[in-house]
């Protein structure tokens, strides 16, 4: 039996991270089905924080505001082409990307929950990953503001974490630890875009190639 360790650097606001999450699930399922002995291998996935293009307004704003700011150098035709390509790839892996409603000032609290689920020895790797899935779904498919505590709690409970544990985590002050880890990936490792996969601690793969 082989133990495969995968670290994934990501941020919730990236549609490519949602697409990559689903693509990875498909790749793992195919590996277990076709690779000799693959169904018996242990695959452990840890999700790592990254702050991609933070909302500099300091409060929740419509997604369209940041969309227009980030693509201000693109023509309307170029913007439409980007959205069309993204939607086509998203549909191919069974996810829905919506662009309406609000985006919070940052994704720090969502990353705090994921960090705590990763570091808590009572939480399985599967539940840790399901929390990421539920938060990505809430943001991209359900058009929810994942900076809001009630949205975070709903997603975590849906992932299989007890409500009392979620409430404790939301009150736990680990923001500085998460910030430090996120800075490491940007400032020390030089990552500027996500997803970024690291296999067995040494083999890197840029998820933007998905």
UniProtKB/TrEMBL annotation:
MF terms in GO: oxidoreductase activity
PANTHER family in the record: GLUTATHIONE S-TRANSFERASE KAPPA, THIOREDOXIN SUPERFAMILY PROTEIN
One Pfam family here: DSBA
Top-rank taxon, per record: Eukaryota
Protein's name in the database: DSBA-like thioredoxin domain-containing protein
SUPFAM superfamilies: Thioredoxin-like
Source organism: Aspergillus hiratsukae
Residues annotated as domain DSBA-like thioredoxin: 6-207
Gene3D superfamilies in UniProt: Glutaredoxin
């Amino acid at each position: 039996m082989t133990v495969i360790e995968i670290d994934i650097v990501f941020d919730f606001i990236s549609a490519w991270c949602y697409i990559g999450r689903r693509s990875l699930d498909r790749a793992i399922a195919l590996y277990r089905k076709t690779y000799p002995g693959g169904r018996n291998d242990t695959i452990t996935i840890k999700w790592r924080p990254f702050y991609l293009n933070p909302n500099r307004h300091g409060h929740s704003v419509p997604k369209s505001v940041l969309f227009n700011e980030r693509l201000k150098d693109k023509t309307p035709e170029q913007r439409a082409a980007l959205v069309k390509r993204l939607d086509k790839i998203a549909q191919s892996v069974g996810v829905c990307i919506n662009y309406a409603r609000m985006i919070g000032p940052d994704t720090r609290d969502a990353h705090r929950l994921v960090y705590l689920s990763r570091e808590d020895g009572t939480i399985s790797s599967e539940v840790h990953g399901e929390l990421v899935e539920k938060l990505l779904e809430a943001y991209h498919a359900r058009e929810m503001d994942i900076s809001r505590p009630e949205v975070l709690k709903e997603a975590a409970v849906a992932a299989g974490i007890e409500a009392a544990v979620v409430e404790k985590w939301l009150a736990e002050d680990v923001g500085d630890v998460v910030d430090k880890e996120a800075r490491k990936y940007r400032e020390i490792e030089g990552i500027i875009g996500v997803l970024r996969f690291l296999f067995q601690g040494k083999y890197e793969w840029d998820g933007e190639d998905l």
